[in-house]
Amino acid sequence: MSASAWAVLLTVLVTGWVVLDGAVQGAGATLLQEHGQDGKERRREPAERRLVLGAVGPLLLPGEVWLIAALGVLIGVFPHAEADLLSAGYPVAITLVGSWALRDAGIWLRSRRPGNVWRDVWDVVLVVASITLAGSWGALLGVAWGSGVAALALGIAAVVVTRLHGDAVVAWRLRRSGPLPVLVTSVMVAAPVVGTAIAAWPRLVHGAVSEPTMAALGVVALVVLPVVLALQVAAWWIVSRPLDGRDTLFF
Q1: Which residues contact 69 (CB under 8 A, 6 or more apart)?
Q2: Mind giving me the DSSP string for 128-175?
Q3: Between vectors from CA 10 to CA 91 and to CA 55, what angle results, nearest 5°?
């Protein structure tokens, strides 16, 4: 595989993650509050929160597989780009990793013990971590552009767009709307990734490892990619069916 092919693969993997995990981030950000039919904000009841998490839960682990695969490509094939990104945006990257860990902890721990206080505390953690994760991801894209203004703008945009995306996926799974809004919001969350890849393309490709190394890594990719694709297909097959009690079992 050439450096350009690896760059395309990296873009696809990151795009897959933002589409899948963006829905989880958006649903987590709005877990406690939603717009009522009268247009006013209202607090969600515990049963409604479980429905929301059950709607996007099947996307969580497959999405993280895409992210781990993308990190493998970035570190293995484009080490200079990875080093430059961490050097310029180290605090943002640390914030992203920390909020990612807290978001996942909130999802998995909120129902592990009985009691409203335990669940409510983790729900607050989940909301804050989801917003922070989306914002830090957008800011990291802005760092790749080499602009503080871009980092701020993309951070805010990521928070807004992931909320829309999460709402669209939840509404689709609850059969309150069709798949078109999900397709639209998927494009919206993916667009900054594609735009950043295009802008950073010359620097990214120029910093690739040697051709023999890329060839060796290509063998690994042939083994890993079918697994990633199978998880993607399974995830979207699950969310394409109506929500039922099995989806809320772990939340």
Answers
A1: 13, 224, 225, 228
A2: HHHHHHHHHHHHHHHHHHT-HHHHHHHHHHHHHHHHHHHHHHHHHHTT
A3: 80
* Measured distance CA(75)–CA(96) in Å, rounded: 17
Confidence of residue 111 (pLDDT cuts 50, 70, 90): confident
Least confident of 42-56, 168-182, 213-227: 213-227
What is the rounded distance in angstroms from the CA atom of residue 188 to the CA atom of residue 202?
24
Q: Does residue 155 lie in a domain region?
A: no
Helices vs strands, H then E, count in the chain: 8, 2
User: Within a domain: residue 113?
Assistant: no
* φ/ψ bin of 175: left (φ > 0), alpha (ψ from -120 to 50), beta (otherwise): left
Q: What range does the domain containing 211 cover? A: 3-94+163-246
Residue 140 lies inside a defined structural domain of this protein: no
Q: Which residue has the higher pLDDT, 230 or 140?
A: 140
Of 50, 58, 36, give the one whose Cα is nearest residue 122: 50
Give the span between the Cα atoms of 104 and 64, in whole angstroms.
Answer: 10
**Enclosing H/E stretch for 42:** strand 41-43
List C-alpha distances in Å: 91 to 29, 113, 162. Answer: 22, 33, 22
Q: What is the pTM of this model?
A: 0.89
Which residue matches tokens 């802005």? Answer: 142
* Angstrom distance (rounded) from CA 30 to CA 175: 18
Per-residue confidence (pLDDT) for residue 175, from 0 to 100: 85
- Number of domains making up the chain: 1
Q: 19 to each of 24, 41, 183, 204, how far by Cα in Å?
A: 9, 26, 10, 22
